[in-house]
Design goal:
Layout: E1 2-3, H1 15-27, H2 29-32, H3 35-38, H4 46-49, E2 56-59, E3 62-65, E4 68-74, E5 77-82, H5 93-104, H6 127-145, E6 150-151, E7 154-158, E8 164-165, H7 167-175, E9 183-187, E10 190-191, H8 195-208, H9 214-226, H10 252-265, E11 279-283, H11 284-299, E12 306-315, E13 323-331, E14 337-342, H12 360-373, E15 377-385, E16 393-397, E17 407-417, H13 422-437
Parallel strand pairs: 1-5, 14-15, 15-17
Antiparallel strand pairs: 2-3, 4-5, 4-11, 6-10, 7-9, 8-9, 12-13, 13-14, 16-17
Length: 439
């Protein structure tokens, strides 16, 4: 187990192969992590512009992790990377996983199913096993309570017309060959044996081969039993792109998304040794920002008329250059604006530090936001430990221009993790954000 920005204790057996694998992941990063991250100019850093993979930095046969968390399976090499905030915390791996999947519950682009059972009751002790268990548990609940059927397009030669006659195919296959009695028809029956259920069954069978715990394997077997009437068929990720789910089946949306991801991962399977080579790597800056946005959106939606993430409708100059893209943009009912910028870093400051641990470039950035958007109050948010948060501090910025109000930039931490349960963390985070947002 490693943390962000730490050195590996052991050397890798096949550095060149692992680098090629990670490079392939980087090229296909639309499913390795959220595609929206790299489209954000704020994140248009050297890492996201470069051609070479940024996940690990190699030095001989050893490597150093970067700002991505998750896991890498490559042949007999298994690498788990956890957030740096846990490095000296003393938390055991199940508790760290509990925090990570609590954050995922509010990340709007990841679509990871919610986890209802407490981790303490499970013998899940790795990131990928937790992911498979959550997928299997969510599928088990949804398949048993909300069976999914849909109209499927079927093209078939029949002796009696059904649905619509496919005249082009009938002319080609029937009349031209003398089989005039066999009519090419197109119809759409309402089927339980449909593309999505076949994909779920195929993925569940694949995951049975790599799941480690008895609880996970049992859930996957239950899903296969529920889908017994569905055809066993090899499925591909592209087949799921044509499936559109109406709101009545919203619980199937994360199932479809994760089936796509698992099928994409299957592209890295190695027939020679029958192992899966797959990974899930997420940039923690994005996770922290997306978590805060999702939490505010869910808990404070009634207090604002507008809550946007990565708002990019304005430019710094009248020539439409230097696009402004705020992490979180809020507008109150009285048209008062509030901008929040998240910084996934530890803010170190003592009483003698006039800058309070804030980087000067971050302050310049917040100032440009405030003056360009006419926003009088901006919040810089840092991750903190529940129950051990320093006091807030506000910088007030004036200008010599007439009729231009002061801008207040508040510096504060929010509880991002803690030693208690996620329920307590959620409660304290809500109270803390209510204090900062003044709602």
């Amino acid at each position: 187990m490693l943390f962000e920005f730490s050195d590996s204790a052991e050397s890798v057996n096949d550095r060149e192969g692992l680098e090629r694998f990670l490079q392939d992941i980087w090229i296909r990063r639309d499913f390795a992590f959220a595609k929206e991250y790299e489209e954000d100019p704020e994140n248009d850093t050297e890492d996201t512009r470069q051609v070479k993979q940024p996940f690990l930095r190699f030095d001989g046969s050893r490597f150093r992790t970067r700002n991505f968390v998750g896991f890498i399976y490559y042949e007999d090499q298994f690498i788990e990377i956890y957030p740096k905030v846990f490095k000296d915390s003393g938390l055991l791996k199940p508790r760290m996983l509990e925090h990570i999947f609590f954050w995922f519950r509010y990340c709007r682009r990841l679509h990871i199913p919610l986890l209802d059972a407490p981790l303490d009751t499970l013998r899940v002790n790795s990131f990928p096993e937790m992911l498979i268990w959550k997928f299997a548990d969510h599928c088990s609940t949804v398949l048993s309570t909300q069976p999914f059927s849909q109209y499927e397009r079927v093209e078939e030669q029949l002796l009696m017309p059904k649905g619509k006659i496919h005249f082009d195919a009938y002319s080609r296959n029937g009349l031209a060959s003398g089989n005039w009695q066999r009519i090419d028809c197109v119809y759409e029956p309402f089927l339980y044996d449909n593309t999505l259920n076949r994909a779920i069954k195929y993925v569940s069978r694949l995951l049975c081969g790599i799941a480690k715990t008895d609880e996970t394997k049992k859930l996957l077997q239950e899903n296969l039993f529920l889908l017994e009437e569905v055809e066993d068929k090899i499925c591909t990720s592209g087949e799921l792109d044509s499936i559109f789910l109406n709101p009545a089946f919203s619980d199937y949306i994360p199932i479809k998304d994760w089936c796509k991801r698992f099928l994409d991962y299957q592209l890295y399977s190695s027939p020679q040794n029958d192992t899966w080579q797959w990974s899930l790597l997420l940039p923690m800056e994005y996770v922290f920002e997306d978590f805060i946005y999702g939490f505010i959106k869910r808990n404070f939606n009634k207090d604002f008329v507008k809550i946007d993430a990565q708002n990019s409708e304005a430019f710094l100059t009248e020539e439409n250059a230097f696009q402004l893209r705020h992490d979180i943009y809020l507008e109150r009912h009285d048209k008062d604006l509030l901008i929040i910028d998240t910084k996934y870093k530890v803010r170190q400051a003592d009483a003698r530090d006039k800058k309070k641990g804030v980087a000067q470039t971050d302050m310049y950035q917040m100032l440009s936001y405030g003056y360009r958007r006419g926003c009088k109050r901006i919040i810089l948010l840092y991750p903190g430990v529940d129950g051990d948060l320093p006091e807030d501090f506000s910088f007030n910025i004036a200008t010599e221009f007439s009729n231009n109000p002061r801008i207040e930039i508040t510096i504060g931490e929010v509880p991002f993790w803690g030693y208690g349960s996620p329920d307590n963390l959620e409660k304290n985070l809500k109270a803390r954000l209510a204090q900062l947002l003044k709602v």
